[in-house]
């Protein structure tokens, strides 16, 4: 299995990893459908709580001869009808622990190559869904979002977040040390979205090759789902997250049904080329300077999966031509500007 990525990688730091802020948000009544779906119960507080105390979901495996979901954002494939659905989402803000004001459903399907996540975001005011065009990784924008977070190591400290807006704008974040977040991490994955009379849907396809996990043991991952309703500054999670707890990954639910998952030995290539030509007026007869000066360079990053949790990463002649330019900054202070390292080879795993 080979994956070739574009030679230009964009990365924008996200200021708020968990969703849009909601200071001063007004209280909104819960829709009747949501009131019936949201059950009263304790919010998980302890990071080391037993499995029985955590919400759980089982992935539905695409059987032999079965068809994986077609990525069109419509969730009308036969396998989605048989997948387990979860819908008890609780607010992170503006009212921590309260039921979400709109019903949200999530399902997971897995085959030999990828994890598929289907999310249905019901909305009683479809015309108010915020679906503006955004740049990739602009996770702080006040838009509607749907996200899945996977703790494939199941260490309760690291996780991968994949999120999308109704327009299909994507963001991916690497969560570290329970509450840390690195939005410069970019993975190869896909998502399709659709807006209809009931709200909107998101259909994710996350290749197993992009996740790091062990194939031994009980094959249980941590998982959480998130939804942001931009117009209400409301963020909800399936496995409840309380702002004052100072924890995130350690509060995630459990994902079962992953037996037999194997990333294989994927090969991923990230090439780049860059060239330059300079044309200057010259002094007649100057042998040291020509009218046209050309320059070129090329390089390559590559990854090879030796096992599902051990990847060989190498680079040949890395160059800043791989990434977007640093933003212009007007510095009126006595301190130097600091620009973070953006070349993927040097940032992965840091």
Give an overview in words.
This protein is mostly beta strands and 350 residues long. The chain folds into 2 domains: 14-256, Immunoglobulin-like, CATH 2.60.40; 267-347, no CATH class. Helices cover 4% and strands 34% of the residues. The strands form 3 sheets. Strands 2, 4, 7, 8, 9, 10, 13, 14 and 15 form a 9-stranded mixed β-sheet that branches. The protein has a 5-stranded mixed β-sheet with strand order 3-5-6-12-11. The chain has a 4-stranded mixed β-sheet with strand order 1-16-17-18, with no helix packed on it. A hairpin with a 2-residue loop joins strand 17 and strand 18 (310-316). The radius of gyration is 23 Å and the shape is globular. The two termini are 26 Å apart.
Number of helices: 3
Instruction: State the name of the first-level CATH class of the largest domain.
Output: Mainly Beta
Strand content: 25-35%
What is the second-level CATH architecture of the largest domain?
Sandwich
Order of helices and strands: EHEEHEEEEEEEEEEEEEEEH
| Low-confidence blocks of residues | 1-27
How many angstroms does the end-to-end distance come to?
Answer: 26 Å
Whole-angstrom Rg: 23 Å
How helix-rich are the residues, as a percent range? under 10%
CATH topology of the largest domain: Immunoglobulin-like
Q: Specify the structural class.
A: mainly beta
């Amino acid at each position: 299995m080979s994956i070739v990525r574009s030679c230009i990688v964009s990365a924008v730091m996200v200021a708020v990893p968990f969703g849009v802020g909601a200071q001063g948000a007004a209280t909104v009544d819960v829709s009747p459908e949501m009131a019936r779906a949201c059950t009263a119960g304790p919010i998980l507080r302890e990071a080391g709580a037993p499995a029985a105390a955590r919400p759980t979901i089982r992935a539905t495996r695409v059987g032999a001869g079965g068809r994986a979901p077609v990525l069109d954002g419509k969730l009308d494939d036969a396998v989605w009808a048989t997948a387990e659905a979860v819908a008890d989402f609780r607010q992170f803000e503006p009212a921590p622990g309260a039921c979400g004001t709109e019903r949200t459903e999530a399902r997971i399907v897995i085959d030999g190559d990828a994890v598929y996540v289907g999310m249905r975001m019901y909305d009683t005011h479809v015309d108010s869904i915020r679906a503006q065009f955004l740049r990739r990784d602009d996770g702080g924008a006040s838009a509607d979002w749907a996200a899945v977070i996977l703790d494939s190591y199941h260490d309760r400290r690291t996780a991968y977040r994949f999120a999308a807006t109704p327009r299909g704008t994507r963001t991916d974040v690497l969560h570290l040390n329970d509450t840390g977040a690195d939005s410069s991490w970019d993975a190869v994955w896909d998502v399709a979205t659709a807006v209809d009379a009931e709200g909107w849907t998101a259909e994710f396809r996350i290749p197993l090759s992009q996740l790091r996990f062990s194939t031994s043991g009980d094959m249980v991952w941590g998982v959480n789902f998130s939804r942001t309703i931009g117009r209400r500054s409301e963020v909800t999670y399936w496995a409840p997250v309380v702002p004052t707890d100072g924890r995130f990954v350690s509060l995630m639910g459990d994902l079962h049904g992953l037996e037999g998952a194997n990333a294989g030995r994927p090969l991923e290539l990230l090439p780049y080329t860059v060239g330059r030509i300079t044309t200057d007026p010259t002094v007649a007869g100057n042998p040291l300077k020509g009218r046209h000066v050309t320059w070129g360079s090329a390089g390559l990053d590559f990854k090879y999966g030796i096992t599902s949790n051990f990847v060989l990463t190498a680079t040949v002649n890395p160059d800043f031509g791989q990434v977007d330019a640093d933003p212009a900054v007007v510095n009126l202070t006595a301190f130097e500007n600091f620009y973070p390292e953006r070349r993927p080879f040097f940032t992965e795993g840091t």
